[in-house]
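Record type: monomer structure entry
Structure origin: computed from sequence
Chain ID: A
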Amino acid sequence: MQVPKIFVRITKFLGWAILGLSLILLIALALIHLPPVQKRITHKLSTYLSTKIEAKVDIQRITFSILGNVAIDDLTVWDPDNNKILSAHKIEVASSIYNLVTGDYIFDQVHIEGAEAKLTQHKDGLNIQFILDAFEPKEKRTNSSTPITLQFKKVQLENVMFEFTSTVSGVSVAVNLGTLTTQAAEFSTNPTRIKADQVILEHTVVNTLSIQPTIHKTSTISNNKLLSPDFGTGIIFEIKDLELKEDAFSYHRDRVMDTGKFDPAHLSLKNIQLRLSDLLMNQDTLAAGLQSLAVQLPEFKLSEASTDLQLNRYQLVLSNLHLASGNTELQADLTAPYNST
């Protein structure tokens, strides 16, 4: 008869203990979601990051929920010389806390709006090297790092300005990004790979200036290194559907000027409308199906273009090439092998 009574007492005790822990957890969650608490956390995080990188970091506001959603308002980062290198008006990340806890890095949505970034390359490294050094592990791992895979159901960037300047190569790039939207994207390491079902780039302007440095004579480049289909990035791209809408691109060598006519040293492309399918880019192959292309060049307008592209280190193949400009049309199959000479 004593056993059932002891069992009942133990059950009641466990029930009250679980109820008490649940109440404590609910109170803690409620406190975390209070604006004054989140404001204090924002200040603590800004101070920690500033101390960590030994430069000023300012965050106006952080709001988050236990479900895994985080929003950052007005983030600004300076370098040790008090030069602003990064700012963002809004950064929003929506995810499931369950996926993050279980080790599945799946994000429902990432939204970045009103961001500016300046990246500079000097002979001694990048201007963000102090950030990389600050977060580098003190003990370097001897074994190979564990591969990481990040999955994004949707990523959207709006009104983003990016500037890159290299005093080493003499190249500067300025990007004024209108809208970039990706669906079902994935980033993985070992090897570095970017995959996406759909990428749409709209109302974006890219300006590139190349000031040729002094060229020193070097040994002859071997044929297999003459052209890398991944342009030396070392990144594998796999995109099922890539679309450009009302974009513009310009390339200038030595100085910026408007020639008013076609000039390879001063190339200007406007009103770019492009649709690619099954894009694959790695160190050995660049392949894609060009579904459509329309673009305005100086004194020339390409109204329609389509082809199947295959490029490797040794040849370029354009199958079913079709070009149209006004009443002029061209249809061809092109194979262009090349070598170091």
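Annotation 1: Confidence is low (pLDDT under 50) at residues 215-226.
Annotation 2: The CA atoms of residues 99 and 294 lie 42 Å apart.
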